[in-house]
Amino acid sequence: MIQVKNRPEGRRRWVRIAVGVLVALPLVLVLVLVLAVFPWGVLRGAVTREATERFGRPVTIGSVHRVDAIGFHPVIAVEDLRIPQADWAGRGDFVRLSRAEIRFSVWPLLTGRFVPEDIRVSGLRLALVRDKQGRTNWSRPGEPEEGGRSTDLQGLTITDGVIGYRDAKQDRTATLRIAANPDKGVRAEGDGTVRGAPIRIAFTGAAVKPGRWPFQATISGTQLSMKATGTMARPLDTDAMTLDLTARADDLKRIDAVIEAGLFQTGTVELAAHVEHQRPRWTITDLKGRIGRSDLSGRLTVDKRQGRTILDGDVTARQLDFDDLSSPEGLAEAAALERRIGPRLVPNTRIDIGKIDTTDGTIAFRVGRVVSAKGASPITEFTGRMAMDHQQLTIDRIRMTLRQGVVTGRAVIDQRGGRKVPQLTLDLRLSGASVLSLSGQTEITGQVAARAKLAGAGETVRDAIGRSNGRIGLVVANGSLPDRYAAALGFDAGAALMAGSSERANLRCLIVGVDMRNGTGRADPLIVDTSRSRLDGTGTVTFPDERLALRLTGAPKQGGVLRLAGAATVTGTLEKPDLVIPKEVKSVGNIFKSIGRAITGDSGPKAQNAACGALARQVLR
C-alpha cells in the first residue's frame, strides 16, 4: 500500500534528473569541445606573469602556440624562453631555451595540476648557482629548496643542451652537455671541480618512459672517484630511488662536498654502501670502508624535517687510529705546533661545531681496538654515543676499556644560541687501572683511580681546558716502590744511599687533588705516603701550557739516617717535569748539619700516616 502511494513522487524525481541531464549535456559537450580545440597560445601572457612571479625576475617568452589541431592531449610549443640570472648570482641568464614542445593531458588541469607526458627540448642553456649561504637561483625567493620529484613522463628528448653549475657553499663546479632520445636514453658528461680537485662527470639513464628507470653516475679523478648504480621509481625521480654507491678520495671532506652529510677532514678513504631514498628519508645500509688503516661498517638513516637533517645510526670499527680522523695538513700543523711548544698531554683537537647548524640526531659507535703509529695504545675497546641537538653535541655512555681498567663518563660541547666559542664540559672517571698498565715498564706498582670534572670555553680541547673551572683527582693506592725511592721521598739521603736495590717499601697512597680556576690548578692535596716516608707538596699547574710550579717537602717516619732540610721544586711541564733541589739543600754545610743531627738523635719531627681513604674519597668525589 505504501509503495503504491510513493510511486508518483519517485517518477517525478527521475523526470527532474533526466531534464537536468538534457539541459547540462550541451554545456558539458561545449566544455569538452573547448578543451579539445583550446588555443593554448592565448595563455602566453599568463604563463609569463606566473613565471616572473615564480623566479622573482622578468621572464620573456617569444611565442606559445599549439602544434596539433584537436585532442585532449595537446602539444604546445614554447619558443625563445629567457629567464635572467638572479642579481646575486652573476651576469647572464639563468635559462635560455630555443624551443620546447610539451604534450600533456587536459584532464588534470580541471583539478589544478599540470602533468606533462612528453617533452622535447632543443637549444637549452641552464646556469645553476648556489652561494655560500645556501641560497639557490632555482628556488622561489624566500622559500626552501625543493627536491627532485618528477611526473610520469612517457618521453623526453633533449638536443643541444648545456648545464653549468657553480656552488660556493660546497666549493664545486661543473659544466655538462646533456642529450636524451627514445633510442639511446639520457646521456650527460662534462668536467668540473670538487674543493679544487679536477673531476670528470658522466651520467647515463635508460630512455624515459613509464616504470622503473635504471641509471648510472660516475665521478672520476685522481683525488675523488665515485660511482652510483641504481634505479628510480620513475624517470628523473630522485625522491624515490635505490642505488649502490662506491667512493674513493684523498679526504672524507671531499666526498662530503658531493653528498653533503656534514662530514670532516680525514686521510685517504674508501667507502661502499647500499642507499635507499624515499623522500624525505635516506637509508644507508651495508656501509663498509677504510680511512687510512682504520676500518668501519654500519648503517645510517638521514631524515629531512622542517629544514633540519636528522641522523640515526651506528658505526663499528674493528681497528681505529685517531690520526686517521685528521687530514695530513692537520697532522702536519699539530706536529709543527708540538715542535714549537713541546709535547702536551691535553690534545689540541678542534671542537668548534658552529657550522653544523641544521643537523641533529644520534649515532652509536664501537671501536674494537685502538692503534697508533706512535706506539701501542692502552685502549683496547671504545664505545659510546654521540647525540646532536641544535648545536649541542653530547658524547655519553663513554666506555674506554684499557689493558687494565676502564674510563667512563661523558663530554658535552655546547655552541647553542650563536655562541662563537664552544663550551666544553667533561666528566670522566678512571677505575680499576694499575700503574704498570698505564705507564708500561716501571718499578712502582699500585691501583689507579682518577676523576676529572671540568668546564671551559675554547675552539679546541686544549684551549677549553686552559680556561676551565672544576677539579681533577688522582689516586694510587695499595702498591709498592723501591725502598731507596721511599727514603728519598722522606729527604733521607743516607737511607736512600744505603737501601738495597731489591728492597721495597709499601706505597700506601699517592693523592693528588687539583682545584681548577680559569685554567690554573692548585694542588690541594698533593701527598705521597709510603711505609718509610711521606712527601707533601703545594703549588700550581697552569693550562694550556701545562706548566708546573710545585714545592715538595718530605719527612721519614722512623727517623732519618741522613735527613736533609729544605725543599725541592718541580718545574717544566706535565710531559717533561724538571725536579730541582736547591743548593742549600745539597750543600756541604747542610750535609754536615744532617750528620750532626743524626749523631745527636735530633733528626726532626717524624711523618705521620696520611688518611688515605678519606683523601681518596675527597679528590674522586
What does this structure look like?
It is a single chain. By secondary structure, the chain is α+β, with helices and mostly antiparallel strands. Mean pLDDT is 84; it is low at 1-5, 19-26, 493-500 and 582-602. It contains eleven helices and 28 strands. The chain has a domain at 468-619. The protein is elongated, with a radius of gyration of 38 Å. The protein has a 28-stranded mixed sheet, with helices on both faces.
Overall geometric form: elongated
Oligomeric organization of the protein chains: single chain
Radius of gyration from the CA trace? Answer: 38 Å
As residue ranges, the low-confidence spans are 1-5, 19-26, 493-500, 582-602
Helix-and-strand structural type: alpha+beta
Count of strand segments = 28
What is the overall number of helices?
A: 11
Main β-sheet: number of strands, strand sense, barrel status? Answer: 28 strands, mixed
Q: What is the overall pLDDT average?
A: 84
- The helix fraction, in percent, is 10-25%
